[in-house]
Amino acid sequence: MSVKINLRLHFDQVVHENCGHIHIEEKDNIMKKYLLLIIVLLIVALLAIVTPAAADQNAPVGEKISLFGYAREFPSETPFNIRHGWIQPSTDDAIGVFDFELSIDGVLQKESFKMFSATNGDPDLLNRYWVYNFPYGMTGTHTFTGHWFAPCQYAVDFLGYTDSCAAPNEKVETNTRTLIVTFVP
Fold first, then answer.
1. DSSP 3-state of 39
2. Do 39 and 75 fall within a single domain?
3. Coil, helix or strand at residue 121
4. I need a labelling partner for 129 at 20 to 30 A (CA). Which of 8, 32, 86, 163 fits?
């Protein structure tokens, strides 16, 4: 005579009692192990996809494309960055007015982050870069235009700016560079 007793155990185990012996049969255990394996694999796959994008958000990605060059080709859908800015003595006035902006096909872009650092010297040098990351690359042909800005009086004194200044620290565009890049498969 066999008596079947259902117990709610971890894997819906069914316990059978037969002639004084207890046998444990793991009902659907194999299916649950496969399900667990699939869930783990999905989590690993999601981490593999999310991790590069979630990597250090303040690090340039891929190769740097400089606006100081000629029209060029670059592999499509390949990560790259554009970073430009200013290197200047710490003694310069109106440090916060210096700026860099990037437009693509006439549309102003938001920088991914700014890299500011200092190099010891007499005087110290300030390195100020605006970084634009393109982690997924681009396709087609695009026009990249960089715009450098400085305080007006600084631009007149040191950069050959010839317009008049309404105020010494007025932000004026001192340089513009355009580069056409064709992203090829």
1. helix
2. no
3. coil
4. 163
If one counts the domains in the chain, the total is 2
Question: What whole-number distance in Å separates Cα of residue 169 and Cα of residue 154?
Answer: 8
Burial 99-133 (b: 16+ CB within 10 A, else e): ebbbebeeeeeebbbeeeeeeeeeeeebebbbbbb
Same domain, 104 and 166: yes
Q: Which residues pair with 141 in a beta bridge?
A: 182
Cα separation of 38 and 31, whole Å? 11
In single-letter form, the type of residue at position 126 comes to L
- What are the strands of the beta sheet with 113-119, ordered from one edge? 63-64, 80-89, 125-134, 113-119
The angle at the Cα of 159, spanning 153 to 161, to the nearest 5 degrees, equals: 65
pLDDT digits (tens, 9 = 90+) for 122-172: 888 999 999 999 999 999 999 999 999 999 999 999 999 999 999 999 999
